[in-house]
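#lab-general

N.A. 3:47 PM
ok so I finally got the sequence cleaned up, no stray characters, all 241 residues accounted for. can someone with queue access submit it? mine expired

B.Y. 3:52 PM
send it over

N.A. 3:53 PM
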Amino acid sequence: MLSTLTYLQFHALFVVPVVAGLALTATYRLGSRRDVLTGTAILTGLALVYTTPWDGALIRRGVWWYGDGAVLLRFWSIPLGEYLFFILQTAMVGLWVARFRVDTERPLATPTRTRLVGLAVALVVVLSGLALLRSDSGLYLGSLLVWSGPILAIQWLFGWHFLVGEWRTVSVATLVPMAYLCGIDSIAIRLGVWTISKQYTTGYTVPLLDLPIEEAVFFLLTTLFVVQGVVLYTWLMDRWE
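B.Y. 4:20 PM
back already:
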């Protein structure tokens, strides 16, 4: 399929202006500017390192592909635009969650039993993914859940109780960027920038957007990673100091 936009043009139209707008109007109610930006920078590096092997494996498997002319440059089978997405999404969400407040006065000390609850829930996510991987149609969603499990385990083991206590901030900070990313993802698919395989997806879609549910889950999880990561990092740094 001939793409209407290149991947880089897609970023220039829908992603870069939002990141620039958030950067120019940034407020740091969550914590100090240094802590928020440091936490976001760390998460950006982790996103690149952790996501690249999983993303490349699914591209090579044919879970999604790109329109003719949409990709100008690839590294290890992954388009340059994909790497930029890892960076820009993390920056966008980090700058967005910085506008919210959390109660960092809560002590870091947490009973081991409480921490293990978070680990157990993350394990359920991984096991659900493994069950989905038993069929071709569960490949995208199943691999996504398995891939997300270790990140959720680390974050929830450290501070799921703190995140629950700040559920309003975590919810709004996650759902607003997620909704925007789902919207522009739907546009990109309609324009032929990329195509999601029907063979490797469940067939369920997000109402109104006609977006594969796997894409929505991807943006939910990746946005949640950043929100939780920045919130927990800010809490840790505030208590440490």
